[in-house]
Structure formats: structure tokens, C-alpha cells
Amino acid sequence: MLKSENLYGLLAERFALVPEKVCLELEDGRRYSYADLEAQSARYANLLASLGLRIGDRVAAQIDKSAQAVFLYLGCLRAGVVYLPLNAAYQEKEIAFFLGDAQPSLAVCRPGARTWFEPAARKEGVAQLLELDASGGGSLVEAASEQSPIFTTVASAPDDLAAIVYTSGTTGRSKGAMITHRNLASNAIALCECWGFRSDDVLLHTLPLFHVHGLFVALHTALLSASTIIFLPKFDSRQVLRYLGSTTVFMGVPTYYVRLLAEPGFTQQLCRGVRLFVSGSAPLLFDTFQEFQQRTGHTIVERYGMTETGMNSSNPYEGGERRGGTVGLPLPGVEVRVVRDADRPLPANEIGDIQVRGPNVLPGYWRLPEKNEEEFTADGFFRTGDVGKFSADGYLTIVGRSKDLIISGGYNVYPKEIELLLDELPGVEESAVIGLPHPDFGEAVAAVVVPEQGSALSEEEVIAFVKGKLANFKVPKHVYFARELPRNAMGKVQKNVLRSTYAARQYGGMSD
Length: 512
What we know:
Blueprint: H1 7-15, E1 22-26, E2 31-33, H2 34-50, E3 58-62, H3 67-79, E4 82-85, H4 92-102, E5 106-109, H5 114-123, E6 128-131, H6 139-145, E7 161-166, E8 176-180, H7 181-195, E9 202-205, H8 212-224, E10 228-231, H9 237-243, E11 249-252, H10 254-261, E12 276-279, H11 286-296, E13 301-306, E14 310-314, E15 329-330, E16 335-340, E17 344-345, E18 352-357, E19 364-365, H12 369-375, E20 382-390, E21 396-401, E22 406-408, E23 411-413, H13 415-422, E24 428-438, E25 442-451, H14 459-466, E26 478-481, H15 495-502
Parallel strand pairs: 1-10, 3-4, 3-5, 5-6, 9-10, 9-11, 11-12, 12-13, 25-26
Antiparallel strand pairs: 1-2, 7-8, 8-19, 13-14, 14-15, 16-17, 16-18, 18-20, 20-21, 22-23, 24-25
């Protein structure tokens, strides 16, 4: 049983011991201590109460990353209201859907977006709208500044909602993942244990706050260990180089590591004080994993998580191998299994559907009871939609998403297997394999290849490389060349976009 049922109460137990310690250090030199964090989050919690919000009400926030965004989030936890982070890239139609679905009592937007945000909020019945700008100003901050810096954190039950985070909606309407205080607290505790977080750590935080990686994984582990956070508004490789010398932990998506490796100043000497590099939110290419290791002497820790579950597994920080291309071992308290028909667990090295059970797993999706019945097994495992396999010694490898599975001529084709092979071909920077409609096979295997600069690869060369190495039904029928692969904000390749783009094309060789 957790000592505190409200996540904020659990965090505050740790940093109440070091009130004068720096919690947030901003790029402009401003610093906020843990005492400041306590006082500012109290002001926001009092503001929410003064606006009439009650336990369980929702606060939607489409705002830029700032210290005040952190205070607002923590204030929501303290007040027992549900925080709804929204991607800063969402436009009017998307925002209208989220506001209509979640029905927040308060929405917070950027001043520049108010002209279109306000009509959407009014139409969807949102009672109150405040503003927060990138520098930490706006009507929200002005209203909070008038509130008391003292607030008694509400006594939330473990299964009370702390947040609703909408999935990306790449295969249909977005779903609101209901995240509880228990989900977040259990995951933060497991990650601190797994990654050896300590109070003298300095986390370099360059991730966005609308996603679980930046908001939950990075922020919670640092706060739970009362670490210092160098809090930058976004990832900038040259700016990261300036701060790495005083950093002990860095978390990023694969794109961050690729960009760092492109910097001549990114050296082993610069990284000498960093004890932990973590990568997640999208697959890390094995070439990047190896190049990083050779360049810095550090081995990146890859882990596996999702919006609905937080983190599920991780390569070990110590006491085991950090195995490139895998996402490691299940976290303490988390059960992970790979199954096939009738949820039957599979032996090692057999590919199947990944299912997860544990205190980190969401109770369900917001106002979608029929979907919740589909997503959970009779014995309580969550169907992740990911496909993978376990090694004989328990390391999990993600093969792809079940929706990305290609069924060609009755045979199952797993794109990751082909992508790994294609990425070995000289002249290929990266690749993505998709299924396209085919009159005979149902789906035809197609590869989208990003060639290295100066490469003159042809479709015939790519196909010839795969032939003889994989079964014929896995060999791409079409090869397309593109300057880059479409990705979402967290670096995941958007295969739905690729399928839409190339579905009308019959044969490869065309460039974007």
C-alpha cells in the first residue's frame, strides 16, 4: 500500500526534506526551489478551488512548456482534479473534439490561439478559459498569484483519476486513457528503483509536457528522488551540449540521439558525468545504438511504455546486459506476456501479441465502456496492440504494432524483421515496411526507403538484397524512395500516413 494515495502527497514526502534545494533551473537562469514548487502548486490548487472546480472535474491545457505548466499540473493533482494535456500542434477541429469529449470545467490555452480556441470552448460548454504563454505569463498566472501559497492536498483514493491523456488516434478517433494516482505512483516508484535515481541527480529535461514521456516518466522520477531538473523549453542539440557537462541523466526519443551524434562537439569527454541515457517513445535503430556506444562509451537504456500503461519494461541500469534492439525486462510489479490464439502464452522466440497487467495499467478509456471490454482479457491483462517476442533469458523485443501486421497471401509478415534487414543495406539511412492493397495477395509488402545522402540505390537493388535472406512472401513487391519518414511529435513513424500516401501507387522507383 502506498504511503500517500494522492501522487502529489507521495512526491511531497520526498522534497519536503530539502525545501531550499533547486528543483527547476530554466534556460534564462531563473531557479525554483522545492519550497517554491510547494508554494506555487498550492496557489494553483487554490485557484482551481476558487473557480468552483471539484474533485473529478477536468482541466484541459494546450500550452507551451514552462515552469508554470508544471505548477498547474501539480496544482491539479493537489486539488483532486483531472489534468488533460493537449499536444501544442493540435488545431481547432481536433481541440473541439477533445473539449467535447472530456467536457472540462476549465481550459487553458496560449494567448495566440485564443481567437479560435475560445469559440470552440464556448461551443463545447467549457465554462472558463484562461491563458498561459511560453514565458510563464498570462491570465492564469495573474489569477494564481492572488491565491494563498498554502493548500492542504486532497485525500485522493488510489483509483481516483489524476489525468486523461488522449491517444494519437492514428487508426481512428482518439481515446482518452484514464490514468489514476495509483498508475502514476507505482510507475514512478518502479522506475526510480530500476534506474537508480537519487537526490544528487541532475536531469536534463528537453521533452514536451503533453506526452507521458516528459510529463510522467521524466518529471515524476526526478521529483520522487528530489533531484534537480534543468528544464529547457524544447530539444536543441547545441543547447544540450552546453548543459550535458552538469547533467547526470538524459531522457530522449531516438531522433534526439541521432541529432546529437551529428554534432562534432558531442564527445565522450562531454558525457563523462552522465550516468544514464534513456531512449523511448519510438524504436531506436541498432546502428544508432552502436554508434552512440562507440562515440561516447555509454550504452543507451531502451525501455517500453505506452500512454495506457506508463512504462512496462526496461533494459537494466546495472546487474545485466543492455541489449540493443530489445526493450529489456518487465519492471518490478509489472507482468508482461506474449500470446496468440485464445490468449495462450507463447514460448521464447515465438512472435505474438503483447499483454500487460499491473498497477501501472489504466482502468479503461474515458466514456468508452464497450472499448474497455475489448481491451482487457478475462484475467485482467491489457491488450497493448503491440507484437513482440521474449528471448530465452526474458528480454522483450517489439516487432511492431498489430495494426501494422501485413497478411500477404495468407502469411503473416512482421515489418520490423524486414526493416532491420533493409537498414543493413549500404546506402540505406532508414526504412519503413507497410502493406498495400493487392488484388491477389490481399496485401503486398512495400518498403519506403530513405537513402543516405549521395546514394543511388534502385528498387531492383533493394529487392535483390532481401531475396535469399528472407522467405519470398516477405520480399517487398514495391520499393519507394523518400527524403524522410513522416513522424509524430514523439518521433514515431506514422505508417498510416505512409499507407495513405502510397496506396494509389502501383510500382516503386518514385521519389517524394
